[in-house]
Each structure stands twice: as structure tokens, then as C-alpha cells.
């Protein structure tokens, strides 16, 4: 359990997305940059943090990031001031997705049966046919086709390539033809020689054509993003069967399992008829870009993907987005329609898999989830202690919340000055915002930019803010996307 929880503890990268906006619930003032749990980060305080840090560029994005850091750690310190054990945090955004993934792995073991036994003769025959780990030694002639080439220019290049191909197949010296006609840099000196290469070394069309050729054979014209190629394979080699037998056997077993899994998944999704609803792509992009959005009522229940007996709702999708790191959310928010449609279908399929696991009687023991939460709280407390956020010690005249806020400000200053490392919260930060409430006053951001600019002495170019890089390596994917491999 300790090993498992260590993977998910503090999962994800630093949350730098916009914070919760409560509309009229909180009064807007341009002298306040952010609010969280009854505390305020004033424009003056934010200016005091950023103005001395001349190495950090000053722009709206940096001010926004500072405001969100302050919110995250103010809320975390507030929770710690209320309960130093952090038992007031459920941590479901980290723990539940991880255990859902484990349910899907258990489902795979229970329902997917596949024969992974291969007799020696069968395995050797497959090896001889596929020749895994094989390499070819080849030469080529390259004819460049400009990306903006007119049809006439393209036709001219194709005619020239066809003429050279005819010469090569008629027995012409391929090395001399490459030296004379190839437009690859250095081709004249090398005679188009590419040396030995294996799978994955070349672009797909080139590789596919080359590995179909036997020793001494010449390809037809092959088009890749680099231009038009004529390929000649001069030799082929592969590792002996005995050398690769164990590795190849494992690969074939995994291939058989993957095939069985895909068959199962296809049957599951076909039976439930997944349908991405009209307008779902726009909603999905908006929520990926604004995971702080508050959804309720009809908006929360809106189906993005419908399937037999249920749907992936906007609220469920938003929860998933809050569990993903910033890079994933940005990628989803900018993805093309086809990719986003497939993404939504995968998420809906995940729901079906978890539901199917429940139907099969699979469940996570409550004790394991409680143990995971305890371990995650322990690791979070350890990180807070190392960051100087715990223990909270009130100075004379302070209460615990005031002490927590003072220590938070010290921690934020330490990050800006490069003396402290960021504690990434990701999904935990959304639980904190839901629990205590928070907002960034966007209209105050340009005010901070102006005041910091005025307060700073003229200096050379600033360096990138130290808190911008991602946090610790990602733990397991917060929601399963397949039954595993």
C-alpha cells in the first residue's frame, strides 16, 4: 500500500488555472488581487512580493500565477490550522481515480481470457515470418518536392524520379545514380548510403517500403514528407531465433492479450452505442480550459456522451479535467474535433468499464482506501513541514489562522526568491476551493503589473519564473483509458 500511495501522493503538476469565481457573492475591488477562506491578498502585498524579484518577468500571467499559488497554500494552511492531521480533507480527487483504475485492472483479469501458450514450432514459424529485430542496409535517391510546389512543379519532379527509377531497375549503378541525382545533402559523397537501420529509425512510408524489399531489390517511387524516394536494399540481417526467443515469446503474449482486450472493449462499446452529443465538443474544450467552472442543475447534468443506460455528464467530465495536469488540459482544450471526439469516447468507455467491474462484484476494500488517504495525508504533511508551513505556531497576539497566513506569505516569498520548491496540489486544490471558497480578482491583475513595473529599477531582461516548471513526476493516470497491458 505504501508503494501504491507513493505513486499518487501529490500527483500532478502545479495548478495554475483560474480560480473559482463566485460572481456577486464576493465584492470586486481593484485593491484586492485574490480571496481565499476569508483571507485577502491585496494589490499592495502582491506588489511587495514581486517588485524585489527583478529576475522574474512581470506580466499578467505571472501575477495570475502568484495569486493562484497564494490561494492554494492559504487554503492548505487553513485546513491544517483547523486540523493538523488534515483528516478534514477527503482527498477523493486523487484516491478514488487511482482505485477505479485498479478495479479495471481486476476486471481485465476476471473477464478477459486468452490463450498465451505457443508451442515451439508455432513460435519459430512466426519468428521466421516476422523477423523481429531485423535490420536492412539500404541506399536511396531523394527528389525534393517543395511544400508550396505547384502541380506543374510536382509533375516535373515525378517525371524525373520515374526516369531515374527506370534506369535503376534496368541495371544502372545505383550508387552512381544516387550521387548524380539525389538531392539529399551529402548524397553525392555517400552515393545515397543510409547504412544499417531497424524499425522506427525512418518515417513510416519509407520504413514500410524498405522492409518489404529483399536483398538487391529496388522499390517503386515512395513518397514521404521529405520528398520522393527510390530505395535499394543491399543487405538484411536479423538476430538468431535462440537469442531472441524469450523476448519474442513475451511480445507475442502481450500482443495476444492486447488483441483480446480490444475485442472485449469493442464489444462493450458497440453494445452500449456511444454517441457524442451535439455541442459536446465546445463544452469539453471550454471546461478543459476553465476547470474552475461551477456547474449545477441542468448544466451539470448535460450529457456529453450518451450510451445505453447512462451518459458522461458535463459535471463528470469537469471532475476528470480537474484531476488532470495543466498540460493535458491545455492539449484537450486545443485539440481538433476528431481527437476530442475520440477522447470523450474513451472517457465514456472508462465509465462503462468501472460500471462493469461493479456488476462483476469487484470493489475496493474500504480499509485500503482509508489507508491510502492516511498515507497521502502523511506525505502532504511531510511536504508542508519541509516547506515551513507546519507546524503552525502563533506569535503573540495571533490566532492560528493569522499564523497560518503569515507562514503562507513567507512560503510564497521563498518560492519567488528561489529558496523554496512548489508543493504541487492539482486535484487537491479543487477540493480545497470547494470546501473554503476562493477567487482571483482579474481586474486587479493589470494594476499589480503596473505597480510592480513602476517599483522596479530599470534592469536587464528578467529570467523565467522558477515556479513555472512542472512538479514531481506524474502518478498513475487519474482515470483508466483501457483495461491495461
Relevant terms:
485 residues; alpha+beta; 53% helix
- Total domains, how many? 3
List how many beta strands DSSP finds.
10
Structural class: alpha+beta
Weakly predicted, low-confidence segments: 1-28, 459-485
Query: What does the main sheet amount to?
Result: 4 strands, antiparallel
Q: How many helix segments?
A: 19
**Oligomer kind:** single chain
Distance between the termini: 21 Å
The whole-angstrom Rg is 30 Å
Strand coverage percent: 5-15%
Topology order in helix (H) and strand (E) letters: HEEHHHHEHHHEHEEHEHHEEHHHHHHEH
Strand order of the largest sheet: 4-3-6-5
- Fraction of residues in helix: 40-55%
Shape: extended
Mean pLDDT level:
87
Structure, described:
Helix 2 (43-50) crosses helix 19, helix 5 (120-130) crosses helix 10 and helix 11 (280-289) packs parallel to helix 13 (314-323). The chain has 3 domains: 2-95 and 375-455, no CATH class; 134-237, Chitinase A, domain 3; 265-359, no CATH class. A 4-stranded antiparallel beta sheet has the order 4-3-6-5, sandwiched between helices. A 3-stranded antiparallel beta sheet has the order 2-1-10. It contains 19 helices and 10 strands. Residues 1-28 and 459-485 have low confidence and may be disordered. With 485 residues, it is of the alpha+beta class. The chain starts with a helix and ends in a 30-residue tail after the last helix.
Reconstruct the topology from this structure.
Elements: H1 2-8, E1 32-36, E2 39-42, H2 43-50, H3 60-82, H4 92-111, H5 120-130, E3 135-143, H6 151-169, H7 174-181, H8 187-190, E4 193-197, H9 204-212, E5 222-224, E6 227-237, H10 241-272, E7 275-276, H11 280-289, H12 297-301, E8 303-307, E9 310-313, H13 314-323, H14 326-333, H15 337-359, H16 366-386, H17 400-416, H18 427-436, E10 438-440, H19 445-455
Antiparallel strand pairs: 1-2, 1-10, 3-4, 3-6, 5-6, 7-8, 8-9
Amino acid at each position: 500500500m505504501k508503494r501504491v500511495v507513493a505513486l499518487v501522493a501529490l500527483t500532478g503538476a502545479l495548478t495554475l488555472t483560474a480560480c473559482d469565481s463566485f460572481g456577486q457573492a464576493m465584492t470586486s475591488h481593484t485593491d484586492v488581487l485574490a480571496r481565499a477562506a476569508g483571507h485577502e491578498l491585496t494589490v499592495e502585498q502582491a506588489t511587495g512580493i514581486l517588485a524585489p524579484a527583478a529576475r522574474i518577468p512581470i506580466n499578467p500571467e505571472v501575477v495570475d500565477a502568484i495569486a493562484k499559488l497564494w490561494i492554494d497554500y492559504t487554503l492548505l494552511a487553513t485546513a491544517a490550522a483547523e486540523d493538523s492531521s488534515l483528516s478534514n480533507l477527503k482527498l477523493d480527487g486523487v484516491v478514488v481515480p487511482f482505485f477505479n483504475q485498479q478495479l479495471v485492472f481486476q476486471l481485465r483479469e476476471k473477464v478477459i481470457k486468452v490463450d498465451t501458450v505457443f508451442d515451439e514450432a508455432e513460435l519459430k514459424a512466426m519468428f521466421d515470418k516476422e523477423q523481429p529485430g531485423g535490420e536492412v542496409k539500404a541506399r536511396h535517391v531523394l527528389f525534393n518536392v517543395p511544400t508550396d510546389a505547384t502541380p506543374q512543379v510536382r509533375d516535373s519532379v515525378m517525371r524525373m524520379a520515374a526516369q531515374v527509377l527506370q534506369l535503376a531497375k534496368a541495371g544502372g549503378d545505383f550508387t552512381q545514380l544516387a550521387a548524380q541525382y539525389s538531392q539529399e545533402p551529402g548524397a553525392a559523397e555517400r552515393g545515397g548510403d543510409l547504412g544499417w537501420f531497424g524499425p522506427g529509425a525512418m518515417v513510416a512510408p519509407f520504413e514500410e517500403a524498405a522492409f518489404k524489399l529483399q536483398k538487391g531489390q529496388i522499390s517503386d517511387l515512395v513518397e514521404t514528407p521529405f520528398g520522393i524516394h527510390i530505395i535499394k536494399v543491399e543487405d538484411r540481417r536479423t538476430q538468431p531465433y535462440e537469442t531472441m526467443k524469450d523476448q519474442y515469446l513475451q511480445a507475442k503474449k502481450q500482443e495476444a492479450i492486447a488483441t483480446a482486450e480490444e475485442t472485449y472493449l469493442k464489444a462493450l462499446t458497440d453494445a452500449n452505442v456511444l454517441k457524442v452529443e451535439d455541442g459536446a465538443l465546445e463544452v469539453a474544450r471550454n471546461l478543459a480550459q476553465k476547470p474552475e467552472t461551477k456547474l449545477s442543475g441542468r448544466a451539470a447534468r448535460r450529457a456529453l456522451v450518451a450510451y445505453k443506460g447512462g451518459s458522461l455528464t458535463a459535471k463528470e467530465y469537469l471532475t476528470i479535467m480537474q484531476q488532470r495536469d495543466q498540460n493535458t488540459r491545455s492539449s484537450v482544450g486545443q485539440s481538433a474535433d476528431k481527437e476530442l471526439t475520440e477522447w470523450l469516447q474513451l472517457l465514456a468507455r472508462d465509465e462503462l468499464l468501472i460500471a462493469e467491474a461493479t456488476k462483476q462484484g469487484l470493489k475496493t476494500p474500504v480499509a485500503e482506501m482509508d489507508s491510502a488517504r492516511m498515507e497521502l495525508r502523511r506525505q502532504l504533511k511531510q511536504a508542508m513541514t519541509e516547506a515551513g508551513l507546519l507546524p503552525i505556531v502563533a506569535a503573540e497576539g495571533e490566532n492560528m489562522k493569522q499564523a497560518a497566513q503569515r507562514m503562507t506569505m513567507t512560503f510564497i516569498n521563498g518560492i519567488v526568491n528561489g529558496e523554496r520548491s512548489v508543493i504541487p496540489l492539482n486535484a487537491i486544490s479543487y477540493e480545497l476551493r470547494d470546501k473554503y471558497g476562493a477567487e482571483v480578482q482579474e481586474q486587479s491583475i493589470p494594476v499589480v503589473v503596473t505597480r510592480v513595473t513602476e517599483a522596479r529599477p530599470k534592469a536587464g531582461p528578467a529570467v523565467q519564473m522558477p515556479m513555472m516548471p512542472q512538479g514531481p513526476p506524474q502518478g498513475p493516470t487519474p482515470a483508466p483509458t483501457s483495461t491495461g497491458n
